[in-house]
């Protein structure tokens, strides 16, 4: 029986009536008297002041853009913070961790676990609600929740580009419809927008809606598909979809956004600059050749992303038995680097939090030659315009390092 009367609905689990907060306080107060460690999943806990002084507080963040995580990172102390990816750790260290009196403390990475018994190659399967493959079929899978930022419109555009380049192939784009599609007007509108986009792109015959699958069925879908696409600009903090697909032996085509930039350097992973449909379609065509060394990649996944490893990491962090995590570096204001939420492509910079590109020719040329860290005086000496440096600092494109 849960003691905390929370809604549990993503992404606002703390959206709860005030009388429920009172009930939670009354129920949990006795627990605080004997607990040695307090673990707060996603944190932003209303009753933080009830935690007795001296109790070990461990929290976890599973994103760094929803307000729950940001309020916790900048407003509350913790003895230890757990995140699922190096990307998320870098973002926290460069912001909340860079404040002289910051609240982040040590941050350790405990990657999400993947059930490799479920997510494995399944030759010859046909997912529920999907027709059999034809001889010339090229099957793309977009297995995401109904959120435009997950890239449904980009996936449809890529489908159109691939169809134009491979006229002899029948391109199929499988899109599972969420269980709310019939009851929620907002969800229904999402899929209606996809239909409109497919008609406009001339690929309505390629767009195939499927039922919303469970885990076993999703694993079947990964194995059935030729390529899994993750083309959106949602700031992924880990991207289970990509790893699950790879575990099933299906290549992944992903926009280089957020933690997707840290996907394994493997022939089955194909990254492209977000918003570049031509690059995305070429990556998809390349990926359609199939994966090599699936067993080798699964061995890596088993070592790094097993449930056992994840559980051990959480237990050690919560009990205090983990190896000491690195403290966030304290900025001295002299050295700068490209922000961890940014990526450079040519003379442009992609910004995860701005969900788009900016053109900064002198700055990008300088950073390509300067290495990972540089001083502002070094940039000025290299004739990077002062206004471009100031704009990069203001926009969060470059950040102070030690």
Give a brief outline of the structure.
This protein is α/β, with parallel strands linked by helices and about 400 residues long. The chain has helices spanning about 20-35, 65-75, 85-95, 150-165, 185-200, 215-225, 240-245, 275-285, 295-305, 305-320, 360-370, 375-380, 385-395, and strands at about 35-40, 55-60, 80-85, 105-110, 135-140, 170-175, 205-210, 225-230, 250-255, 270, 335-340, 340-345, 350, 355-360, 375, 400.
Describe the protein's architecture and organization:
The chain is built from 13 helices and 16 strands. The protein is globular and about 70 Å long. It has 3 domains: 1-113 and 306-329; 137-300, 3-Layer(aba) Sandwich (Rossmann fold); 335-401, no CATH class. 36% of the residues lie in helices and 17% in strands. α4 (152-165) crosses α8 (277-287).
End-to-end Cα distance, whole Å, is: 47 Å
The unreliable regions are: none
- Main pleated-sheet profile: 6 strands, parallel
* CATH fold group of the largest domain: Rossmann fold
Structural shape:
globular
Domain count, please report it: 3
Structural class: alpha/beta
Strand content: 15-25%
How many helices in DSSP terms? 13
Radius of gyration: 23 Å
Helix content: 25-40%
Strand order of the largest sheet: 7-6-5-8-9-10
Query: CATH superfamily of the largest domain, called what?
Result: Glycogen Phosphorylase B
Average pLDDT rating: 91
